[in-house]
Write a structure and sequence with these properties.
Strand order of the largest sheet: 1-2
GO biological process, one term: cobalamin biosynthetic process
CATH class: Mainly Alpha
Low-confidence stretches: none
Radius of gyration: 19 Å
Distance between the termini: 61 Å
Family: Belongs to the Cob(I)alamin adenosyltransferase family.
Pathway: Cofactor biosynthesis; adenosylcobalamin biosynthesis; adenosylcobalamin from cob(II)yrinate a,c-diamide: step 2/7
Pfam families: Cob_adeno_trans
Largest sheet: 2 strands, antiparallel
CATH architecture: Up-down Bundle
Shape: elongated
Number of strands: 2
Number of domains: 1
GO molecular function: ATP binding; corrinoid adenosyltransferase activity
């Protein structure tokens, strides 16, 4: 299999089923955002892998990479003729993991800023990329039918990354940065 084909030199590519579209097609934007997210999850795995306390989370993230890829594949099929890879069971599993990590963190009393441990900051970044992908999916579903399971999975995924970031800070004993309305005023020395 060649790395390059030259088919995209004119600004287009093929969807599953052979339909040719421009590379800025809404469907391509949607599953391309999931591809970006998957790369970000790879970075998060690399950071979590360094910490033995995060082994279970690291293994889950590796599994989630496959599910994110499945969501992208389900979205790349405009015909809907292929059997969907994502099921309701995967989303239910994700919800159970969210509940589990939520039970291991302190109750939320203030808005939390992305940060703390480096892996927690990347988890929060993954949350925002997931939200962007979800917005792309909403734009697409206004125009075309999409996989309901993939959409719901992506919606839950952002919640997972939020609580994963909180859990990482909790386990690594790093204080979460909280939002301070108006911020703190710093005086710089001349």
């Amino acid at each position: 299999m060649k790395i390059y084909t030259g088919r995209g030199d004119y600004g287009n590519t093929n969807l599953i089923g052979g339909k040719t579209v421009y590379k800025d097609n809404l469907r391509l934007e949607a599953y391309g955002s999931l591809d970006e997210l998957n790369s970000l999850v790879g970075w998060l795995i690399a950071l979590c892998h360094k910490e033995k306390e995060l082994l279970t989370l690291t293994n889950e993230l590796s599994l989630l990479q496959h599910h994110i890829y499945d969501a992208g594949t389900d979205l790349a099929d405009p015909s809907g003729k292929l059997e969907e890879r994502l099921t309701e069971d995967i989303t239910k599993w994700l919800e159970a993991r969210i509940d589990h990590y939520d039970s291991l963190t302190q109750p939320i009393e203030k808005f939390i800023l992305p940060g703390g441990h480096e892996a927690a900051a990347v988890a929060q970044y993954a949350r925002t990329v997931t939200r962007r992908a979800e917005r792309k999916l909403v734009s697409l579903m206004k125009e075309e039918e999409i996989s309901k399971n993939a959409f719901i999975f992506v919606n839950r995924l952002s919640d997972y990354f939020f609580i994963a970031g909180r859990y990482i800070n909790e386990v690594m004993k790093v204080e979460e940065p909280f939002y301070d309305r108006g911020g703190t005023v710093f005086h710089l020395d001349d």
